[in-house]
């Protein structure tokens, strides 16, 4: 089956494809074949299946890259730095061969921290685990739109680094928390 990438976020690890028959298919970063990630407007081939919340694409391969530059497609792929307010493409900083964080090339402010500061990442042991991706979707689609949700997210980011470090050294406790998070991840997967 073929379709066009409607939206894909490398940062969030998931996206949507509109198939030639008009149906929208969810896919995540683990469903992508090859080293290149798709961009909005790319033509892809994929296998269609049924996910928990509707059509799901797997074995996603890029057939043709979109020829239109980002600005003419109407979307600017650059992020806005929360420190200096400039539009930028974050630069990745690695530590011992692993991505550590991304920073603004203008002011050096941290844009995103990829470390073990997220409880779900510490519990599952992989930033790109399907459950962690589902929990990021829960954060972005359910919590982020409301004031209470945004407050919860801010508190979570403040307390999560020490909790994540503690959990990484307590596998039995991490396994118990994983069971709780699995319920939430299944609902948003």
Kindly summarize this structure in a few lines.
The chain is 32% helix and 30% strand. With 189 residues, it is of the alpha+beta class.
Walk me through what this model shows:
By secondary structure, the chain is an alpha+beta fold. It has three domains: 65 residues, Beta Barrel (OB fold (Dihydrolipoamide Acetyltransferase, E2P)); 39 residues, no CATH class; 74 residues, no CATH class. It contains four helices and ten strands. A five-stranded antiparallel sheet has the order 3-2-1-4-5. Strand 9 and strand 10 form a beta hairpin. The radius of gyration is 18 Å and the shape is globular.
Task: Spell out the key features of this protein.
alpha+beta, 3 domains, five-stranded antiparallel beta sheet, NA-bd_OB-fold, 189 residues, nucleic acid binding, OB fold (Dihydrolipoamide Acetyltransferase, E2P), 4 helices, 32% helix
Reported for the largest beta sheet, the result is: 5 strands, antiparallel
Radius of gyration equals 18 Å
| Distinct helical segment count | 4
Mean pLDDT across the residues is 83
Distance between the termini: 22 Å
Q: Which structural class fits the helix and strand makeup? A: alpha+beta
List the helices and strands and how they pair.
Blueprint: E1 2-9, E2 14-19, E3 24-28, E4 43-50, E5 55-64, E6 79-80, E7 87-88, E8 91-95, E9 98-103, E10 110-113, H1 119-124, H2 130-143, H3 147-168, H4 171-188
Helix pairs in contact: 2-4
């Amino acid at each position: 089956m073929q379709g066009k990438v409607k939206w894909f976020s490398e940062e969030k690890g998931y996206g949507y494809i509109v198939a030639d028959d008009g149906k929208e298919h969810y896919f995540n970063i683990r469903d992508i074949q090859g080293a290149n990630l798709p961009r909005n407007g790319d033509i892809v081939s994929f296998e269609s299946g049924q996910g928990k919340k509707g059509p799901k694409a797997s074995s996603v391969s890029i057939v043709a890259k979109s020829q239109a530059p980002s600005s003419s497609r109407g979307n600017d792929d650059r992020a806005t730095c929360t420190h200096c307010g400039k539009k930028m493409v974050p630069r990745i900083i690695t530590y011992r061969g692993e991505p550590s964080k991304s920073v603004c090339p203008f002011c050096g402010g941290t844009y995103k921290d990829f470390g073990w500061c997220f409880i779900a990442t510490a519990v599952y042991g992989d930033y790109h685990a399907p459950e962690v991706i589902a929990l990021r979707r829960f954060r972005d689609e359910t919590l982020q739109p409301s004031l209470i949700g945004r407050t919860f997210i801010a508190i979570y980011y403040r307390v999560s680094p020490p909790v994540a470090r503690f959990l990484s050294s307590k596998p039995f406790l991490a396994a118990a928390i994983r069971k709780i998070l699995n319920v939430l991840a299944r609902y948003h997967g």
